[in-house]
UniProtKB/TrEMBL annotation:
<feature type="transmembrane region" description="Helical">
    <location>
        <begin position="376"/>
        <end position="398"/>
    </location>
</feature>
<feature type="transmembrane region" description="Helical">
    <location>
        <begin position="20"/>
        <end position="38"/>
    </location>
</feature>
<feature type="transmembrane region" description="Helical">
    <location>
        <begin position="192"/>
        <end position="211"/>
    </location>
</feature>
<dbReference type="Pfam" id="PF01490">
    <property type="entry name" value="Aa_trans"/>
</dbReference>
<feature type="domain" description="Amino acid transporter transmembrane">
    <location>
        <begin position="2"/>
        <end position="394"/>
    </location>
</feature>
<feature type="transmembrane region" description="Helical">
    <location>
        <begin position="84"/>
        <end position="106"/>
    </location>
</feature>
<dbReference type="GO" id="GO:0015179">
    <property type="term" value="F:L-amino acid transmembrane transporter activity"/>
</dbReference>
<keyword id="KW-1133">Transmembrane helix</keyword>
<keyword id="KW-0812">Transmembrane</keyword>
<feature type="transmembrane region" description="Helical">
    <location>
        <begin position="126"/>
        <end position="143"/>
    </location>
</feature>
<feature type="transmembrane region" description="Helical">
    <location>
        <begin position="223"/>
        <end position="247"/>
    </location>
</feature>
<protein>
    <recommendedName>
        <fullName>Amino acid transporter transmembrane domain-containing protein</fullName>
    </recommendedName>
</protein>
<feature type="transmembrane region" description="Helical">
    <location>
        <begin position="148"/>
        <end position="172"/>
    </location>
</feature>
<dbReference type="InterPro" id="IPR013057">
    <property type="entry name" value="AA_transpt_TM"/>
</dbReference>
<dbReference type="GO" id="GO:0005774">
    <property type="term" value="C:vacuolar membrane"/>
</dbReference>
<keyword id="KW-0472">Membrane</keyword>
<feature type="transmembrane region" description="Helical">
    <location>
        <begin position="337"/>
        <end position="355"/>
    </location>
</feature>
Length: 403
């Protein structure tokens, strides 16, 4: 439960008040639980993995592996799509994690800029801070052993959770305005932006199977009151509280990250921003670690044609990917828009589009009408969310940077 809560409560929580601004206070309040329920087909992934394990006891559980095995061991007509299905899952997993790294770089740079500009006369563009932060991130992401990253992850999580508590303290320190002080509905164009941010905050589907696999009592993970549903209910309540009360407290003045609304003249608020910079850099390294084992084994075969030093080649590749995240962050240095774009593109595929397809391939032809109907509804919801969320976010980015 602790790992599930820790893994789900991430940087996206600080952008939720801005997301509530886009959709409106009560519209966002009503939509968020619906999105949380619909985008929580993780239990589908767990069930499919369990079926694959029964079919092949030597099966090594993973999201992409489950997708590929479902096609290979299911109906004969799906076998030819097995490799493509597995590759598709891995592509979106890599996009999701690298996208999160882009979000983290924008977040840390923006908060570092706010602190430095308050205490000094320096007025640098936020992209300069991105370049400065990229230097330690390059060396941090040269760490190839997950055990060495464990202390970094532990410190990052403690700092991040402490910062969330402090943000809630500032939200509730002063009396909250009446609920009619902010619009109940934002705009139709803002709803897809809200959707993208909500999906980004809630999407941690790649965390589920590794957690269940390492449990002493893996059967406790499932069920209406199992660890998964209980943990996601707690996470959803915390997210709604942050979005609802954060927007209500700061209203139309809410920033892309609520940390930028904290009082500039109070040391505690500035300390929180610095701690979050340190914490998110640690989380960057953990997010960055996930796609490398997926991508590098294939790429190393091509690198071997030009160099026999595999270690140096991998470090060069890691450096290159950190620089790619820098370029993307510098291209869109707006935290709320980056969060919405990453959520709309990768979150909808991993949490809404791929799981219903996986369940159908796993259970066909013995799939009930109720489950089939549920899968179709989630799939349509995901496709609509992907199209509208991506389009609205790109449109907002174009308007932001072209005036």
């Amino acid at each position: 439960m602790a790992h599930l809560l820790k893994g789900n409560i991430g940087t996206g929580i600080f952008s939720l008040p801005s997301a509530f601004l886009n959709a409106g206070l009560w519209v966002a309040f009503g939509m968020f639980p619906v999105i949380a329920i619909v985008s929580n087909p993780k239990i589908t992934q767990v069930k499919s993995a369990a079926v694959m394990k029964r079919r092949d006891p030597s099966f090594s559980i993973s999201y992409a592996g489950t997708a590929e095995m479902a096609c290979r061991t299911g109906q004969p007509q799906y076998a030819k799509y097995a490799r493509a299905f597995g590759i598709t899952v891995n592509v979106f997993i890599c996009l999701k994690h690298f996208g999160a790294c882009v979000v983290y770089l924008v977040f840390t740079s923006t908060n570092l800029q706010a602190v430095i500009e308050y205490y000094t006369e320096i007025r640098w563009n936020v992209r300069i801070y991105m370049c400065i932060l990229t230097i330690p991130l390059i060396f941090l992401n040269w760490i190839r052993n997950l055990k060495l990253l464990a202390p970094v992850s532990l410190v990052a999580n403690v700092l991040q959770m402490s910062s969330i508590v402090v943000v809630f303290y500032y939200i509730f320190r002063d009396p909250l305005p009446p609920t009619n002080s902010v619009p109940a509905f934002g705009s139709w164009g803002g709803v897809p932006l809200f959707f993208g941010t909500a999906i980004f905050s809630l999407e941690t589907i790649t965390l589920v199977l590794p957690l269940q696999k390492d449990m002493r009592r893996p059967w406790d993970f499932k069920g209406w009151t199992g660890i998964l549903n209980t943990g996601m209910t707690i996470v959803t309540c915390i997210y709604i509280a942050m979005g609802f009360f954060g927007y209500l407290q700061y209203g139309e003045e809410i920033e892309g990250s609520i940390t930028l609304n904290l009082p500039q003249d109070e040391v505690l608020a500035q300390v929180v921003k610095i701690l979050l910079v340190v914490a998110i850099c640690g989380n960057y390294a953990v997010q960055f670690y996930v796609p490398i084992p997926i991508m590098w084994p294939t790429l190393s075969k091509y690198a071997a044609r030009y160099t026999k030093n595999d270690f140096a080649a991998e470090l060069a590749f890691r450096t290159f990917m950190v620089l790619v995240t820098l370029l993307l962050a510098a291209a869109i240095p707006k935290i709320d828009l980056v969060v919405s774009l990453v959520g709309a593109v990768t979150g909808t595929f991993l949490a809404l589009i791929l799981p219903p397809i996986l369940e159908y391939v796993t259970c066909a032809p013995n799939i009930s009408k109720a489950i089939l109907t549920k899968d179709i509804v989630i799939l349509v919801f995901g496709i609509v969310g992907f199209v509208t969320g991506t389009y609205s976010t790109i449109l907002a980015i174009v308007q932001e940077f072209t005036g």
